[in-house]
Known about the structure:
The structure is a homodimer of 208-residue chains. With 208 residues, the first copy, chain A, is of the alpha/beta class. Chain A has 2 domains: 69 residues, Arc Repressor Mutant, subunit A; 114 residues, NAD(P)-binding Rossmann-like Domain (Rossmann fold, 3-Layer(aba) Sandwich), CATH 3.40.50.720. Helices cover 44% and strands 18% of the residues of chain A. In chain A, the strands form 2 sheets. The first copy, chain A, has a 7-stranded mixed beta sheet, covered by helices on one side. In chain A, helix 1 packs across helix 4 and helix 2 packs across helix 3. In chain A, 35% of the residues are buried. The interface between A and B is large, with 59 and 59 residues. Chain A binds a DNA duplex (22 and 22 nucleotides) through helix 3.
Amino acid sequence: xxxxEPTVERLVQYHRLLEQLSSExxxxxxxxxxxxMLSLKASQVRKDLSYFGEIGKRGVGYxxxxxxEHISGILASPKKWPxxxxxxxxxxxxxxxxxxxxxxxxxxxxxxxxDPEKVGTxxxxxxxxxxxxxxxxxxxxxxxxxxxTAPSSVAQLCVDxxxxxxxxxxxxxxxxxxxxxxxxxxxxxxxxxxxxxxxLFYLKGREx
Amino acid sequence: xxxxEPTVERLVQYHRLLEQLSSExxxxxxxxxxxxMLSLKASQVRKDLSYFGEIGKRGVGYxxxxxxEHISGILASPKKWPxxxxxxxxxxxxxxxxxxxxxxxxxxxxxxxxDPEKVGTxxxxxxxxxxxxxxxxxxxxxxxxxxxTAPSSVAQLCVDxxxxxxxxxxxxxxxxxxxxxxxxxxxxxxxxxxxxxxxLFYLKGREx
DNA sequence: TTATGTGAACCATTTCACAGCC
DNA sequence: GGCTGTGAAATGGTTCACATAA
Lengths: 208, 208
């Protein structure tokens, strides 16, 4: 069964929350409590969790550690994905150092940039190569996923170069532009300023 | 009329695209072309744009500069929102330096952190204060919006302190945790790692 | 003839309401 | 009695299809 995107997103949230609850020694939690902590309806939580079999106990709730392991299994990766990050600017470096980007599911093996100050050095322990050599490095390392933090002006150019190398399966795009890829490349985007635009738009509406 | 969130998100995209098209000297564009460039259906583009009156010309398309100004008006802010950024780590600094965070719509007037290396200095020209003095600074400067880039572990604590100061209308949360606020505070979140999780989840599904 | 604007149909997601089990 | 699991209903958003205007 195809799992809807909003559901996957919430599964990640449940996973994080359960990790925290578990570390606090919590044993059991109800859909209502989860909902309160994540600002979701209890029925939403139950429906999400029910897609993967009956994991809760009626009249009791969900066993924290058991549910955590269960969701771990759903979100688990069959392998460690080989990733490259393209564009080692402030944002790229911030991501490299971010706790959320340390994971068992992937391994950032290469960085690409055009800045001579960075090419040839290691950043956070990862070697930085010149964009001109990206295609061969991608093939050599078997890179399958790209984190794109290059400036908007060159984002599409980078994507064209990288996908032409072959083997790229997915791109996580941080540039505030929409990029075009071959249909077999999955793209997800994080637009760091569009949420601020939305916030201000709806705040304006509240001011009257 | 209430405008749906996905529509506001796309309006921001149209706005960016039109700015670019205008700078390239483009005069007219059709819903079909806009759709192609942003990976949207033409009908979606037309519906979005029609919410705000008839702005296109039947048989012709949309006049680029006119549509750009039109959307500018829709997204316009009645004032420059006074903002503070909380948590001057790598991510916070990356945002401060990001082009997308320079805008007519707001003004980042204060930074808050607990690091003695940062408190009392200016970062990107903005003064950094200690979190302990946040409440008084927020009241003094009339801060209404918070960009939260503090570590997850203290995110909720920060939110409680900040909202208690009064006057806070909205929070843009970059911590990968869900935060709880009084109902009059609007919260939007940018989760920099959840999109990567989704990407890997669906890539796994494609591998078979 | 071409491309917009829009009601209606469609599809996806959320919420309800209650049966089922602990 | 309490809380999950789940069809059914409601809601929200997208796409279609065509009337309408340049």
